[in-house]
Design goal:
The chain contains eight helices and 22 strands. By secondary structure, it is α/β, with parallel strands linked by helices. Strand 13 (172-175), helix 6 (179-191) and strand 14 (197-199) form a beta-alpha-beta unit. The longest helix is centred in the N-terminal third of the chain and has 14 residues, at 77-90.
């Protein structure tokens, strides 16, 4: 979550703002920020969310791993998201769903679009970016082979299972061993999907070693030092080619590939705007207060 200060420059003409703070993203961090601002007496706050409902990624995550620190008990992702939205509504915070931010400009000006009003512009004294991160998809991982149906990230899988109520595959191969990778296993187990293997290019799991017990308990092969080389299939996935650390190659028959983790900042708005980027994180360049550059 990044704060962008609006500093006036010599010769710049300042006009009154529509809002004190505009928050881009109605996930847990965006709503938490809006609640904190409301509780501190900041009056004109709007939260902008491109999806039809507030709540962010937890809306697509059905297992009960949310809410313990905030509400004192474990909740499913959708229940947690609804509770956050209810808290915001109780304080009169304006949440504008189905609203996409097309551009973030100097002076706190945002270009928005929604199905009812079309394209419009608003201005805020402060803009807070709470768009989070996204997983690295197949295209950015330089994996060879065909382009069949059945290649997803964890976020896409959870949207299929918990929102669309649909199974995209039945016997996939899971790529990665981050915490989100094991969340993907829980989602598969909940939906009756049985992954054939979990592949990790390093010689140990990226998450805590304790997590490695789960695939073994569920009968899922956990392969360290293994790289995905190619994806096979014409209309949909029918197998993958993997390579071990010893350069031995093997084909695994499967009907899906699930890429997990390798998160990068969802910083498209910053990249398109007049702001400095950090080459190390691929996200915005920020100071020690979390503020972006403001040329």
């Amino acid at each position: 979550m990044t704060i962008w200060p609006l500093r006036s420059r010599p010769g710049a003409r300042m006009t009154s703002a529509d809002y004190d703070v505009a928050i881009i993203g109605a996930g847990p961090s965006g709503i938490a920020a809006a609640l904190a601002l409301a509780q501190r007496g900041v009056g004109r706050v709007i939260v902008l969310e491109r999806e039809a409902e507030a709540g962010g990624i937890p809306r697509h995550c059905g297992h009960k791993t949310f809410g313990l620190s905030e509400f004192g008990w474990l909740m499913s992702g959708p229940s947690y998201a609804r509770r956050l939205a209810a808290e915001a509504n109780a304080l009169g915070i304006e949440i504008s769903t189905r609203t996409s931010v097309l551009a973030l400009k100097e002076g706190g000006e945002l270009t928005l679009t929604d199905p009812d009003a079309g394209i419009k512009a608003i201005r805020a004294r402060r803009v807070l970016i709470a768009t989070g991160v996204r997983e690295t998809p197949r295209s950015a991982r330089l994996v060879g082979g065909a382009r069949p149906v059945g290649v997803l990230t964890t976020g896409a899988l959870q949207n299929f299972i918990y929102v669309k109520k649909s199974k995209p595959f039945r016997r996939p191969v899971v790529i990665g061993t981050e915490i989100v990778s094991f969340s993907a296993l829980l989602t598969c187990r909940h939906a009756g999907i049985m992954p054939l293997a979990m592949i990790e290019e390093n010689d140990r799991p990226t998450a805590y070693r304790l997590f490695a017990a789960y695939p073994r308990l569920w009968g899922i092969a956990l392969r360290y030092g293994t790289t995905l080389v190619e994806i096979h299939g014409r209309d949909r996935v029918d197998g993958v080619l993997v390579e071990s650390a010893s350069r031995k190659r093997e084909t695994i028959a499967c009907d899906g590939v699930l890429f997990t983790g390798k998160f990068v900042p969802a910083a498209e708005l910053v990249r398109q705007g007049p702001f400095a980027l950090d080459p190390a994180t691929e996200g915005p360049s920020i100071d020690h207060y979390g503020r972006l550059s403001d040329p």
